Amino acid sequence: MEQVNRKEQSYNVIISGAGPVGLFLACELALAKCSVLMLEREENPHSPLKKLPFGIRGLSTPTIEVLHRRGLLEELEIHKRLKNPHQHAVQGPRRQMGHFAGIPFHEGDIDTSQWTNRLSGSTDFSLISEMDELETILARRARALGVEIKRGFALTEFQQTADGVTVKAANQSFQGQWLVGCDGARSVVRKAGGFEFTGTEPEFTGYSVQVDVVDPEKLKPGRNLTSTGMYLQSQPGYFAIQDFDGGAFHNSDEPITLEHVQKVLRRISETDVTLNTLHIATTWTDRARQATTYRNGRILLAGDAAHIHSPLGGQGLNLGLGDAMNLGWKLAATVHNRAPEGLLDTYQTERQPVGAQVLDWSRAQVAIMKPGPTARALHAIFRDLMNTSDGATYVAGRVWGIFTQYDLGDGHPLVGLSLPNLELDDASRVGELLRDGQGMMLDFEMNTSIETLMSKYINRIKYVQVHAKSPADVSAMLVRPDGTIVWASSSSPNIREAEDAAARWFSPANR
Q: Which residue in 250, 293, 326, 338 is a FRET match for 460, CA 20 to 30 A apart?
């Protein structure tokens, strides 16, 4: 048969990994008119582990805002029909809203008025989602925007030059200008790309299992700390177990058998419980590592490829989606030669500190969950603090990402914060104005000088004369495509400062 030579198609961006982070990044890039190829190792996206309850995740405030700004929040249904799976019929003002190291915090104890860095908006502080549903919605949106998704294509190697990247997967070669590794904790992109990955080694092996229990009355529901570890029974037969073996079993090549799970569960629960069927099982650890840089030339990392930690508190998904939202518009501007100098470098300077905080948050939880008198003493003190309004409010704020603020230099107190979802006069919300992925100047006082400045940024920054319930003492705000406030004025605007902010984050329309 005659061999036909076909010119390889070239893409603006190739993404390795079609999980939620990679899919959301692909949506952001495609929204900005970039051509995107996704390469995913698994052929079937619907893993049993993504089903309830293993696939349930809590969405933080920044994630909820991000999904709303792109019109995706309304498509999620599971939070409308599911209660928190760990609250166990606790209702009223003592409804459990989350936990720190297994210590719950409750709705009635949270004083949101203490979060003075947040302006009021319409989105929730926290919602429940399901991994399978979220990935389905993101994949559907990505395809609608023109993203090409190839499943069963495991990236095996790549080479980068000054002009682009050549990627090999499933015995095929693909060309791209940029490659982003969203391929998880064991990222091939990170390993082959020469990224340094530093941090701390694990204290435990964690197990997520679905089993049939012969004598279920021997095991308590909910989260149970024992003298040897912890087990959580979220629903009958669904267990998360922490065995403080230094991660030895997870790092071994031993299979996860019914006999092994029974042995571990008996030891951790301090019972002689009997299991007769193992349906689903996987292991994980609290290893906490982070890439020292998120970029190497034309190679970038996001999500678990850039940082790994214990899933305690469920912050990994939110951290990764935050990476994608931050990176997407910056990489798109770079692809289209519209990026001000150094714009792409701000991805690392902004997101790496956020990742480091989450890793430390995970380490702190592990430290007070370990068996032994020292951890038990700390656990008791934290429990007392969590039963106070100040303690519950602080922990909820950390878990829900309320305190996230990028250090963008001196300026108005709102700079670096997320745009609140203000109500407009027509009863719509300001977050809906960001659905096209453009930056936005909100002018609450119809200032002609701001309007003149924005005429230089047509098709870069959307100028909106806002008829809304204006935040107190704010006359105008400049907002990036990811919803971050980069300039604000409390009185008569300083046009020079507004011009400097616009030039820092956007290129003029004549570029």
A: 293
